Fold:
Amino acid sequence: MKKPIPVQSASAFIEEKIKELGDWRGETLAKVREIMHEADPEIVEEWKWRGTPVWSHGGIVCTGETYKSIVKMTFAKGAALKDPSGLFNSSLDGNVRRAIDIHEGEKINEAALKDLIRAAVALNLEGKSRPKSGRVTQNTEA
Structure:
């Protein structure tokens, strides 16, 4: 099993990726990162799958992937989130994930994105506090 990258190193890798991109994608990824931290100051940055920035709190909140023509934010449990502002515009047919594709020049609805991030964190934390279904414990002490 691979060892996880320490948080400090993950943050440094993300910073390096932003610098390496050196164009609108780097700027957009930096803005997404800023919004993530504003929405949830306890969010943890990770570096997974050979170079994908990941933000977690109680589980994966979302990833920040960069491609030639988009910056993609994939929410791990996006299908379970309410999206009244209609930010999700990709991976809409899946049963679990939902994504936001951000194209060059598009403005990010920061308030709506922060709401979505907070909802994703709340969903992760709700899952952590619920007892596992189907497990019954019995006190055998008399």
